[in-house]
TrEMBL record:
Domain ABC transporter stretches: 5-237
Keywords in alphabetical order: ATP-binding, Nucleotide-binding, Transport
Family designation: Belongs to the ABC transporter superfamily.
Cross-referenced PANTHER family: ALIPHATIC SULFONATES IMPORT ATP-BINDING PROTEIN SSUB, TAURINE IMPORT ATP-BINDING PROTEIN-RELATED
GO molecular function: ATP binding; ATP hydrolysis activity
SUPFAM superfamilies the UniProt entry points to: P-loop containing nucleoside triphosphate hydrolases
Source species of the chain: Pleomorphomonas carboxyditropha
Keyword Transport part of the UniProt annotation: yes
Lineage, uppermost ranks: Bacteria, Pseudomonadati, Pseudomonadota, Alphaproteobacteria, Hyphomicrobiales
PROSITE patterns found in the cross-reference section: ABC_TRANSPORTER_2
Domain of life of the source: Bacteria
Protein name in the entry: ATP-binding protein
Length: 256
């Protein structure tokens, strides 16, 4: 496997005044292949966001390191798009202007910006809302806009931290399908954090299960379900078996 992203012995130590230093993640090793969809689950505080933020270049590891295409990550970069739970749209810009924003920074011409933005706005199903301001959109629509914006600047890697965590169950399922449809069309490498074991299994090629105190990689579960993922797969016995396996690893790590 040629690794797109490699975590090598990554440890992040936090020293909070008045408390002993502790490792938010400890000796974390993981290779993510080009075009792979990896989900990360684990109990609250096990270091999922810390690991993702190290990959994003937003947090510097205390020891160890991370490479993208073999080059050491020293900070944020345009080849890594980050999507958080809070949509982080510019409230004074329309959907289209939000999606065009990164393209403007990257120096794309006006007509090109428009063409690329409209392509991704269409892919996420927001064409009728291209001229709308974020405050007039539902949570699911805002997150679709954030996904279109992240995709538009053509990052090779998408780092997603609980992107659907604030959404209702039905919207969440719809966005999972939309994200997978985009992933199969515009293949990127995705690392996706979630608290939802079903979501983790449904989306992924592999599920990374982390454990807490100290935050560390507990095990990796291969998801050998076919793509495209469908409702039939979601309701299948094979899906249930994988979900149960991941669930046990998260909630009973000593046994699994
Ligand atoms: N800047 C910081 N300073 C001190 N401690 C921090 C800092 N950032 C995170 N931590 C601690 O590091 C640990 C891991 O946090 P992190 O947010 O990575 O976990 P998580 O698995 O993403 O949690 P959750 O699922 O609740 O979002 C937690 O104990 C957290 O309190």
């Amino acid at each position: 496997m040629t690794a797109k992203i490699s975590f090598r012995n990554v440890t992040k130590t936090y020293a909070v005044a008045g408390q002993a230093p502790f490792n938010a993640i400890e000796d974390f090793n993981l290779d993510v292949a080009d075009g792979e969809f990896v989900t990360v689950v684990g109990p609250s505080g096990c270091g999922k966001s810390t690991a993702l933020n190290v990959a994003a270049g937003l947090v510097r590891p205390s020891s160890g390191g991370i490479t993208v295409d073999g080059a050491r990550v020293e900070g944020p970069g345009p080849e890594r798009g980050v999507i958080f739970q809070q949509y982080a749209l510019f409230p004074w810009l329309t959907v289209r202007q939000n999606v065009e924003f990164g393209l403007r920074i990257a120096g794309h011409r006006r007509d090109e910006r428009r063409r690329i933005a409209d392509h991704f706005i269409d892919l996420v199903g927001l064409t009728d809302f291209a001229g709308a301001l974020p405050k007039t959109l539902s949570g699911g629509m805002k997150q679709r806009c954030a996904i279109a914006r992240a995709y538009a600047v053509n990052p090779k890697i998408l780092l997603m931290d609980e992107p659907f965590g604030a959404l209702d169950a039905l919207t969440r399922v719809q966005l999972q399908d939309q994200l997978l449809a985009m992933w199969s069309r515009e293949r990127r490498t995705v690392v996706f954090i979630t608290h939802d074991v079903d979501e983790a299994v449904y989306l992924a090629n592999r599920v990374v299960v982390m454990a807490a105190r100290p935050g560390r990689l507990h095990r990796v579960v291969d998801v050998d379900l076919p793509f495209p993922r469908t409702e039939d797969i979601r309701l299948s016995a094979a899906f249930a078996a994988l979900r149960n396996e991941v669930w046990r690893s998260v909630y009973h790590p000593a046994l699994n």
